[in-house]
Structure formats: structure tokens, C-alpha cells
Amino acid sequence: EAADVAPGGLGPGCVGRLRAEAAGALVRESAPGRAPRAAEAEGPEPGLALVVVAPRDGLQAWAPDPGGAADWIASGTPHLYAGVLEGTGVVGPLVLPGATACAGCMERERVDRDPAWPRMLVQWRSAHRRRTAAACDLGLSTAVAGLAAAHALSFLDGELPASTASRWEAALPALHWDSSPVRPHPDCPCAAAVPSEQAVPS
Ligand SMILES: [Zn+2]
Q1: Is residue 105 part of a domain?
Q2: What is the CATH number of the domain that holds 114?
Q3: What does the pLDDT look like over 76-117, one tens digit per residue?
Q4: 111-161 pLDDT, tens per residue?
């Protein structure tokens, strides 16, 4: 769609193409030289090293649905949330399943603070489903995309970037970048709240 066109991103020639296809072509064009050869297929496909969760609806990054992360939690797949919800950009948390807080921990923590949270979330989600294209500030979304990519690359290089167990947020119009810790919840089945030395199989 025309609203997907951005400097450094998809160009006007991409309008009308599938997003995944256009994004894949853009990545290939941005990497001159021959693509690295895929490893010889031997045995089962290796698990993903990292999933970047950048949903089209920023609400799913700001208040991620634990159901959507269930497979990553079960398989121990690290995942990083990033997105823009109206005037607020979010990078993080980077979730290390079983070690740092997950979407389920975040949701439980919010319900503890505000019992009306689930009802508000249902209303927001249904309002978002009806909306065709969300307004999104281009400068903010470009910053969020760049920061998310940098955090992802840092993690893949063996570091624990600042989004590990933490959420970075910047909101229009002042755009201060602030982080807040994301804590494991004792009732969450991801078991991140149980210190590993005390984890005893039942
Ligand atoms: Zn959890």
C-alpha cells in the first residue's frame, strides 16, 4: 500500500506487491555480492536463533498476546518485540524463554496493577481489527526499525542488548527514550520467575 512506502524502506514501485515478497527483494538488493550458500540439508532444520516480532498492528507489540508466543516459549526460541502504536515506539523486551519475562508475564503483571486491563485490551483489539491502516509517524517507525535491527544483530553476535528483559519506549512529541524493566511473573508458566538453581522437577 502507498502508506508502506518509506525512505530506506519499500519504494513506490512496490505498491501492489506482497509485503513479504517486496521486503525480501529489498534485502537482497541491499546486500551486494553473491548470497551465502544455504548449508547442506542434513537432518532436521535447526531452530531459529531469534524471532523479531514486528506486527503490523502496533498494539500486538505494545501489549503482546501470550498465545502468539506460546510456540517460541515451548521451543525456547528467543524473541524480540518491536513496533509503533500510534505515537509510541517500542523496542523490547528481548525474551529469553525461561530466563526473562515473556508476554504472559507482562500480561499478568498488568492485570495485577489494573484488574480492568483484560476488558480494555479486548476493546482495543476489536477497535484495531476494524481499522484499515494505522497512522504511524515515519521518523519514529524508522528509528524503531533501526534500533530493533541493531538489538537483534547485537544478540546474534553473542551480546545481551539493553532490550533484554527491558522495554524501550519513545513517545511523540518529545521522544525521550526511556526503558522500564520487565519482570518475570511467579504465576506465568514460562517459569522465568523461578531461579534456575531452585528449579526442581516435580
Ligand atoms: Zn512468562
Answers
A1: yes
A2: 3.40.50.720
A3: 999 999 999 989 999 999 999 999 999 999 999 999 999 998
A4: 999 999 889 888 888 887 776 666 678 899 999 999 999 999 999 999 999
Q: How far is the CA of 115 from the centre of ligand 1 (A)?
A: 18
In-domain check, residue 16: no
C-beta atoms surrounding 164 within 10 Å: 20
In a domain, 11, yes or no: no
- Distance (Å, whole) CA 138 – CA 135: 9
Does residue 104 lie within any of the structural domains?
Answer: yes
- How many other CB atoms are there within 10 angstroms of residue 182's CB atom? 24
CA of 165 to the centre of ligand 1 (A): 11
Express each pLDDT in 8-20 by its tens digit: 889 999 999 999 9
Q: How far apart are the CA of 200 and the centre of ligand 1, in A? A: 18
Cα–ligand 1 centroid distance for 178 (angstroms):
22
Could you tell me the residue range of the domain that residue 83 belongs to?
A: 48-196
Burial 30-49 (b: 16+ CB within 10 A, else e): eeeeeeeeeeeeeeeeeeee
Query: Looking at the 3D structure of the chain, how many domains does it have?
Result: 1
